[in-house]
Amino acid sequence: MMKLLALTKNDARQIWKDPLLMASLLGPLVLIVFARFIIPPLSGWVEQHYGFPVIDYFDFIAVILLLTIPLLSGTMAGLLMLDERDENMIAYYAITPLTRKGYFIYRLYGPVLLSIGLSSLFFLWSGITEVQIEGLYFVILLTIEALCMALFLAAFAANKVEGLALSKISGLLFAGPIIAAFAPFPWSYVGAWIPTYWPAKSYLLAVSEKPFLSFGSFIIGLVLHLILLNGMLRSFLKRMD
């Protein structure tokens, strides 16, 4: 327990000193505040002056903002692991009572807890999402995506600089919800290979009052996300050996 507390304090110091890590931690909170206080009046202003009904796209906007949360949480965890690997801290933790396995479990709990907590807070407080049971599907898939992002950076980046470069690739993941929201059937399934497509599809079907299709999309997405997570975990463990 003392070792975990020491790790937590060390994380807090690292995050406080690194603007990028601080932005990854505070970014989701900024998104929630933005959704709560900026989007509604801004959408009213746009509709009044330009006649464009932004309110009709609140669900899509919510999906985009929600998907940002696991990407930021996973990026923060991955960069922390890269920092500690560069400083040879992982080898140090391996010979302590924490052990290397304990360190990795601790490190991966971070994005899980952040994704669950911040995504749930978004659903409850943003004001642009509908709180319903299908939201749980979305949170589960987002949590797995946060883990995959952290493992991806730790497995494929040689150092923190490469990690920052690889994290930019996450921008491509926003193609998933765009295709899910706007591509007509059957072309929308072109995006099925993109992990973010399935949580977006499940949520959009749920708010369209199609619960069975939403659940079906969640199950397909869950299977694909677990396959992806298994692949990322194998690559990560291979890199760590």
TrEMBL record:
Record's keyword annotation contains Coiled coil: no
Source superkingdom: Bacteria
Transmembrane region(s): 20-40, 60-82, 103-125, 137-157, 169-192, 212-233
Keyword Transmembrane in record: yes
Protein's name according to its UniProt entry: Fluoroquinolone transport system permease protein
Keywords from the UniProt entry: Membrane, Transmembrane, Transmembrane helix
Taxonomy of the source species: Bacteria, Bacillati, Bacillota, Bacilli, Bacillales
Organism expressing this protein natively: Paenibacillus endophyticus
